[in-house]
Amino acid sequence: MLYEEISNDDNELSKALPPRDNDLRVNNHSMVDDDKNNDQSDSVKYKSCHQNRSVEARRRNRKRNDIFRRRRFRYVMTRPVYPRFTIKSIRKILRQYDISYIHTKIKQELLIIGAKNNKIKDQNEPKLPINIFSRHKYYAFRRLSEV
Q1: Domains recognised in the chain with CATH numbers
Q2: Which residue, of 42, 62, 134, 146, is most buried by count of CB atoms within 10 Å of its CB?
Q3: Where is composition skewed (Acidic residues) in this entry (predicted)?
Q4: Main-chain phi, psi angles of 58, to 5 degrees
């Protein structure tokens, strides 16, 4: 014989184990299957779906997004905001006060309201009180919206 006989240790181990220990046998079997799968997966190379765009296309997209972001925050009004306010409730209050906006964003405890141009920003600035998004106003607004 050219090769040594391979001992059949798996059968001896499974006989020695109690019959209720099915998890161990299943896990032992799955580990053997995983080794076979790893060998196959190393030989097959998959193309990542996240690298389909070319570098030039991603650069154009980033440049375009930067332009939009600069436009969005060109004319802004800022107000301190209580953290429990949601963007939805803030926009509802802005509509009640007849404030036209193109974008709202909460950054830390500061609300940033983007306006379309400087004229609209100057018109909206006096309409919106400084303390409109305070803690006291939050609970008052909540009471009104529940009724």
Answers
A1: 75-146 (3.30.70)
A2: 134
A3: 1-11
A4: -65, -35
Does residue 137 sit in helix, strand or coil? helix
Residue found by looking up tokens 């100057």 in the block? 122
For 19-35, letters b (16+ CB in 10 Å) and e give: eeeeeeeeeeeeeeeee
* Rounded alpha-carbon distances, angstroms, from residue 99 to 119, 120, 128, 132: 12, 9, 8, 13
The predicted-structure confidence for 37-88, as pLDDT tens digits, reads as follows 555 555 666 666 666 889 999 999 999 999 988 887 899 999 999 999 999 9
* pLDDT of 26 strictly over 70: no
Model confidence at 105, pLDDT cuts 50, 70, 90, reads very high
**Model pTM?**
0.58
Report how far residue 68's alpha carbon sits from residue 120's, in angstroms, rounded to the nearest whole number. 19
For the chain, the straight-line distance linking the first and the last C-alpha, in angstroms and rounded, comes to 91
For residues 120-142, give the mean pLDDT: 95
DSSP 51: G
